[in-house]
Amino acid sequence: MKKVGFYLILSFTTYLLGQFLWFLTVIFEKPIFGDKNLETFFLILVYTFFSVFGIISAIKLYKIEN
């Protein structure tokens, strides 16, 4: 159960990081990393990690239940 909690915390932490980064990109007109494409790529990467960690924790939780 500790691994499931770890993956859930990691998942929600990456989601929070993505929301914070997205908020900053909306507030500031200039790109944070100097390039709009790099900024978009980083946001996609953060949300992809969120999805992967969420799926891993869901699978582990399902295996514990069965």
**Weakly predicted, low-confidence segments:** none
Major sheet: none
Q: What series of H and E elements makes up the topology?
A: HH
Percentage of residues in helical conformation: over 70%
Q: What does the radius of gyration come to?
A: 15 Å
Number of helices: 2
- Portion of residues in beta strands equals under 5%
- Tell me, briefly, the overall form: elongated
Task: Look at the structure and give the mean pLDDT.
Answer: 90
Number of strands: 0
The termini sit apart by 13 Å
Briefly note the structural class of the backbone: mainly alpha
Total discrete domains: 1
Detailed description of the structure:
The protein has 66 residues and is an all-alpha fold. It has one domain. It is built from two helices and no strands. It has helices spanning 2-27, 36-65. Helix 1 (2-27) runs antiparallel to helix 2.
